[in-house]
Records
---
Amino acid sequence: MTETATLAAASGGQILVQCLQFQGVERVFCVPGESYLAVLDALVDTPEIQVVTCRQEGGAAMMAEADGKLTGNPGVCFVTRGPGATNASAGVHLARQASTPMVLFIGQVGRDARDREAFQEIDYRQMYGGIAKWVAEIDSAGRMAEYVQRAFAVARAGRPGPVVLALPEDMLRETAPPPRLSTPPRPAHPAPDKTDIELLTRLLAESRRPLVICGEARWSEARKRLHAWCESRQLPVAAAFRCQDSFDNDSPLYIGDIGLGINPALRRRVESADLVISLGGRFSEIVTQNYSILQPGRGQRIVYVHPDADELASAPTVALAINASVDKLLGSLVDDGAAAVTAERREWLQGARADYEQWSRPNQIPGPLQYGEIVTWLRDRLDDDAIICNGAGNYTVWVHRFFRYRRADTQLAPISGSMGYGLPAAIAAKLRFPARQVVCFAGDGCLQMTLQELATAYQYGANILLIVVNNGSLGTIRMHQERNYPGRTSATDLQNPDFVALARAYGFHAEAVAETQQFAPAYAAAVNAGKPALLELRLPLEALTPNLKLSDL
């Protein structure tokens, strides 16, 4: 599109759709509602934008979040007022905690009915004020272009995140004169100054046991620079919780992820490191292991790099805070020889890598199906750019521990810990990259949070592979119950459907796998089916995690 464009005089709904085109939006996820019929009507005349009709607003918002995570551009979701908006809140929370750019549009009651508790009316500024970066309601079709451009800019800026715009129903029918739009501005990326680089170089030169942690920054562009810089300094690299695709897991520099079920040896290394360089992430509860590591007073120097100044201000006391994007920082770093690679540092790195390789070898679990062996089998056979998706639950521990992410934008996993995320994320990934392999892992409880989106996958030809790990329980909660209230379990047993029969009813190819040796032929049949496929892995509840049996508790 040219640098500026003049839109034709039109309704608010038509102007909104034209604004989306101007922003480069190619796909929107939605559950239709009467509150934004004018937008749906305008989309009929805009075949350049694919409309994906989801089965529940939570799934729609999760798909938009996953799309934004994969592309770096805001994922777009439309939902109706009231119940639709409340259902979509899970996806907004996901985007907030994962720092994912996203714009949620919500149909709203007409302006003449506002503040009367009209049918399905909610004040979205109050509802979403704590989890969205910006929440606004557009009162005039004449200001539609202004609000949409700002929404996309805010979603991308600093620490990316979700923006919510409410659309009064009568405003969408209102006509307005044509606005003029400029080419959307590129997001501002703060850069480090000379003093930042000099101090970081000095801290690294003085360090004997350095360690880098990669967080939820956008790594597609910065990854090559990160690898080169860490290689020149022989720096061990750990990934923050569910950010494992930030660094090639096959690299001798990679030492594991700081997440749930952390390798105890990695935790000890983080605690004993004399310099920790955190790139683009947050000092969250998971990364700090319940705020017990990476805290002031341990004689440990911490360098914190983040593009959002507010995030830096809210972090623990650090030796150096650098307000910069990771790409700008890594582009400014120069290997000037100030930090020679000592034998001690090489030994530190080699020991950390050996710990990781030992940890990522599957061990035996109870029963005839060895889940860890299946994950490593897939690890050795899937393409390097295959996208691995999951939701939340103990079943994810095997995936995070035994799979190896080799390229950027290959992991879709909820940093917020939201159940039900894996299936919608996989659908969004397959629609965005139809030529790439997309594999979703889901627990039996996790899947049933968004199971109805099987219909969305089939309708839109998203030929994903869905692996359901069925142990008949909400295993994570059962584990915590046994630890804290032994012998007094409650509400965690699941009476599940026949997942194979259910998936076939949705049009999927589906098989059950009860033993390890059955998986390879079942996988081959799924791949050759030419449609979405589900493989059900039947796992005993006794196998709570790779290292923990139920009877141990």
Note: The domain at 194-359 is CATH 3.40.50.1220 (Rossmann fold).
---
Amino acid sequence: MASQSAKAASTGVPWSGHDTWLLALVGLSIVVVVLLVSWARVHAFLALMLGAFTVSLLSGAGLDKAADSFTTGLGNTTGKVGILIVLGAVLGRLMADSGGIDQIVTTLTRLTGPKHLPWAVTAVACVVGLPMFFEVGFVMLVPLVLQLARRTEQPVLRVGIPAMAGLATVHALIPPHPGVLVAVTAVHADIGLTLAYGLLVAVPCAVVVGPLFTAYVWPRVTASPPEAALEAFTTTVSRTAGGALTAGVAGSGPAGAMPGPGARVPAGAVAAAGTAVAEPPRAVRETGDGGAGLPGDNRRMPRFSVTLATILLPLALMMLKASCDTFHWAGGGLLSAIEFLGTPVVALLVAVLVALFTFGWSVGASRRQVHETLSRSFTPIAGVLVIVGAGGGYSQALHDSGVNDAIGRAATHLHIPLILLAWLVAALMRTATGSGTVATVAAAGIIGPLAHGLDSTHAALLALALGSGAAFLGHVNDASFWMFKEYFGLTVSGTLRTWTVSHTLLSLTSLGAILALTAVVS
């Protein structure tokens, strides 16, 4: 199969100059968005909107279609990704106010130490990302990343890039992620064999894109997480002049100011008098179960076991659904219940409802205090939501312009090994649409008819090649690109140098590993 080439298929529609223009238009629109944001200093929402209109108008879609494409894409993305961001922000705020995040950070730093922190975060992110969509895992890990950076006095990118790398690796290569499952079905691969090969490929990819790339890039990129994100997801804990422990939500002053390359999130936002610069300050006392309490507002810190169980609850629900979809061990009403509870939105909602008790009422918070925590959850993510939605509108405009069809016609005229063709088509689709899942699905539809007659081993590797290509070159039309930028306070240039480069590195590294496996098994 390594030598098998894709034959030019008859698509019924010959290649035209318009198709060439559509491919050139993708690059032109990307340049427009980047220049508007980085040079003209136009807000990303407006830049993405103008980029979407540029694509629609120059592709010949018409004025009415330009508006419809953008609004449709914005609505779809906000409805799917936006609600995950909102629920993740609520869960993170509840954890931060209760001290649950601080519990996890303390345990993780004690077990690993600052030197090995990127390795530990990469491993945690890989585990967290196994059963869930990338965006769900991302919003769940943001509070942990910011608090880890604050507590250990580490640059935020030294923690944030490994978290993103672990999630992206398993999302691209490991079933039961939807893109990989579609690829498995399209090329008639065995899911168990694909999982086994996917794990072999994922390990070196996670190491290269996580700890190794992080060590290179964080000193070279400036990151200053916005105060809104710090206030939403982090707390400071320090000892007062009298010896008592104090805790509070990160806010202004040293905690929010993080200048310089790879800016650090200070752990000791403490005034000269020894009290925490926090809003509002809350005294902390030791409790009998080894945790800590917050008697300033009559709260007790939740136990570590309770905190961990609450965080893992949505993962468990989604993993349960994935195992049922894969092994078909349930049916009837039980299957319906599992399918419902394992849906990402529902799983996160269940976790939030449980967190109202575990991080709120059960640790002594009043109904008013819980309500205030919920109210503070939404303001910090407003900017993220509008930018992510605009990214969806831009992606929809590219899709509606006919770029996908042009890429498909171009692919059928290439005479290259099938694995390379699969990777190339998926990479082009990812570049055009911005969504790894959409890229895998679209590329699988093109490559699937060419894969008949492959043995199970080569079919599994072909499915992985589709996932590998779909990780390529995440940029301004990717909603998660803007999430990463906004949460960690990067410029567009900084996000391209971190997010985009890391995804490209992941795609190329995984392609190399797949080709090496192909050579071994052939």
Note: The longest strand covers residues 235-239.
---
Amino acid sequence: MCGIVGYIGHREAYPIIMKGLKRLEYRGYDSAGIALFDGNDIKLSKTKGKVSDLESRVSQEITTEGSLGIGHTRWATHGVPNDINSHPHYSNSGNLVIIHNGIIENYESLRTELTKRGYSFTSDTDTEVLVNLIEDVKKNEDTKLGKAVQIALNQVVGAYAIAVFDKTKPNEIVVARLGSPLAIGIGDDEFFVASDASPFIEYTKNAIYLEDEQMAIIRRGKDVKIRKIKSDTLVDPYVQELQINLEQIEKGGYDHFMLKEIYEQPSAIKDTYRGRLRVKSGIIKMAGIDDNLDKFLKANRIIVVACGTSWHAGLVSEYIFEDLARIPVEVEYASEFRYRNPVINKGDVVIAISQSGETADTLAAIKLAKSRGAFVFGVCNVVGSSIARETDAGAYTHAGPEIGVASTKAFTTQITVLTLIALKLAKEKGTITQSAYQSHLEELSLIPEKVETALKSDAHVQMISDIYKDARNFLYLGRGYNFPVALEGALKLKEISYIHAEGYPAAEMKHGPIALIDENMPIVVIATRKGHYDKVVSNIEEIKSRSGKIIGIVTEGDVSVKKLADHVIEVPETLESLTPLLTTIPLQLLSYHIAVMLDKNVDQPRNLAKSVTVE
């Protein structure tokens, strides 16, 4: 939620910050703002709307000189999206200016106390409270900005990533984090600050990722000083080399990031199993599993915690782990997990799944599981992310940056990693025959090629999308391994087209949803030949008898469903456990094309942000 960018160095800050905000706009896009120091004063401009609206506002309101500045693109938490609530925010004196990602939970009590001390507030935000709290501490303690930030944050309850500077001491930016990500780019006598590394990858490959409850003082011509907020102890900075490049975060000729990322799935899946899947030798090599094999083999059960699309990938993994490795699995919404006092034992393995590695609810679930003695294994995409650091071990998906808010390649690469783990454990436990094991390895190695084939249905899916783009409700049905795919297909349509859609196990249709079916209801049915095919065909017969419009996702060469469905979209044949990697492709394309035809903002759907770093 929210994207923050900062710069201090020898270049003009404005173009760096503005470009960075555009790259972070997937994190929030209901308002944006920028503050620059020109050597004499702070020049601030902010507005409701997108970064492009901010560019127009800046050109009318302020000059853009200055080599120090901060910028913000917002996903609203406290206060409606408007010009006043947009960041950055000034302190009452006008000396301090701040940007903030997160939520200050005790801001009301802090605001009340500050009001008694004579402070006034123009916005409804918790952020304006924080900057004035910092100013109050700085004034009363007669201390420098860094110390004032530290003292103030020890009075704060909540989550934050902040960047703040003082116009009376314009040679430093103070940053801090708790629960929300923050990266510091280290250049040649210049420094960059951002929610992730994408705003500064063309300027430097070196970055420091702040840990929770750490702050940093960034000064011109000096080394970055990192301290623990609570204990005030210095921390040796760990400088990482960035693994992404500029090309990965550009659209590359596609109209939208989402479409680009759909088409990147063959290479993303291959990158995910590259070096891990060795078909000829019959080996799966994963350091995070190899080093902790006993914990998995002796596990009483596996608990999967995740949110959104990652939760759907977790549901697929439940089928895979139980079917192949015969390990009991429970799949939990991370957002509910810690609030229901879950039973967690030392023999449990918790798998936490997150594309960004920064999902607040999943991080909280990890901390709870670790406190109860469980072994926690992370599956995420972003190297150096909070989940990668908080878990006991893990595996990266290597999907590359995913900019579109609606996850696509995250889903298929997460399933790929989870499948590799399940197959490895099944082999070690002896719950799969050698021939079946080898068959799975060979088929998994062919999935990228088969996804390429599935993508060739794009024009056909576009035609179907045009027919049903004006429908107001959709049903998605699947059985077995493809029930979670039905949920994921419905979620994609809801996220980017704002059409109401629900996913169900196909057999559950008779227990309620069948009442909705009429000639105006499109029903997407996943009916591959592998797994409960005859049962699904019977469900299609029931839909047909009630005049529902059937869009069938079928295996190449299907005959039975073709006779019944209004439209069919074919995918290549594969093993049942691997079908989700193929059947999800046409559902992604369907949601994409419908949203484009409805003139929706595909990459930045309303009310959503890519990385949910607050509760």
Note: The chain has a mean pLDDT of 91.
---
Amino acid sequence: MAGIISVFDTTLRDGTQGEGISLSAEDKIKIAQKLDALGVHYIEGGNPGSNGKDMEFFKRARSLKLNARLTAFGSTRRKDSIAEHDTSLKSIVEAGVPAASLVGKSWDFHVHTALQTSLEENLAMIGDSIRFLKRSGIEVSFDAEHFFDGFKNNRDYALSVLRTIGEAGADWVVLCDTNGGTLPGEIHQIVSEVAGLPLNIGIHTHNDCELAVANTLSAVQAGARMVQGTINGYGERCGNANLCSIIPNLQLKLGYPCLPEGHLKQLTAVARYISEIANVHMPINQPYVGNAAFAHKGGIHVSAILKDSKTYEHIAPESVGNKRRVLVSELAGQSNLLFKAQELGISLDPENVETQEMISRIKEMEHQGYQFEGADASLELLLRQASGEVTEVFSIESFKLLVEKIGDHSIASEAIVKVKVDGETVYTAAEGNGPVNALDNALRKALIKSYPALREMHLSDYKVRVINEKDATAAKVRVLVESSNYTHSWSTVGVSENVIEASWQALLDSIRFALLGQAPVPGTAEDLQERVGIINL
């Protein structure tokens, strides 16, 4: 097995430079704890010299007792000054961190154009800044910004920057592909040349050519021993190198240990947790940790993985904390339904007429616009009904909606539902902030006392998709409803030319799924009437 690779996470610093990402100090504390539990070696928390929020984070983080080395970011001292007077460098010391990450120029073009100083003064800025932090007992990683562009344009000067970094006593020199424009072959060639120097080499890449992960792997294979990146690839422009792909590729494919034994199984949970805290939707097809990373839809594929999962999976999903999913759609075959049923503990006989009818029914429903790959709960209800496992605990006889707008006032919605529950037919009425919410409230009003578990359920997402746009306002729509309780979430689907009817279908499935296996609270008919607040019409 190859030597251990240090994992340097910069989600809290470089990741927050991505568009639409803003983390409070409290958010950063939560994420830092998750990253530490995952087992990364360095957590770059931010730039204490740039804003009060980052300094607040570092002060609060002192009490966390992290195993990872908490790292503060900053720049080299200003030109024509001394490090002892530089506010950014002093802020790093005041942050009380064990490690610092300094950034400085390694491309002569940037020295002349961005810093507008001499090549000699840039070297002095680098050396002076590193020595100042080392005198304070801080471990220093130096980010050689634009190193690969600098090396290709002025090799001698780029190497002189590395020598200055080493002579000043930096613990790591990190080669940065800051513009994200270098190719894997170039990365490998340049890192191979640099790896002969007496330096600990790290790699920091950006994804502007969608090569950040590949470039990082190439650098490691050429001799780099630290990888920098962010969870889910967050970062400026097209993002940073995605640690959720880098870590398993290094550990599972190339044999480089990165995380402590057994910690790789936390990767999916950490990726999704950070996505929630950052309030950024995670692509379902993200490798290793995405919801569709191990999802199978084609009948031939599913038939094969039932025999041996290696037929269509490059690793076991469980090794990164993910799981296999089988999607049921118009492309489904018998194998898809059998796998899904097996997963749910439902017994389906492939030779049974009911099973064949269920396959035909699902295909027909998909043809009408239903989409079960995104509505697992609706599919499970169909399978359980086919196997005779589902007993209807309530039935709907009718509903009415009243929607009223007077003048400039907001629209008021009221729903009246006639429902049979516990053998009694009752009417309930409720208002809502829209017709669907009013229907939801009215139905719950009829059910919640008999089935108090509904108190824990809430609608967490609602999506409407027009299926055949050419029909304009008469078009058929598909409604997906996601519901949650304290332990898990589930999705249901409805389809109709009427958006209210489609929403009602999805809503009913959602409540029926929530009540699977629930027994009603016993009571008399009079109790029921009192509990649900029957109105006489």
Note: The longest strand covers residues 394-404.
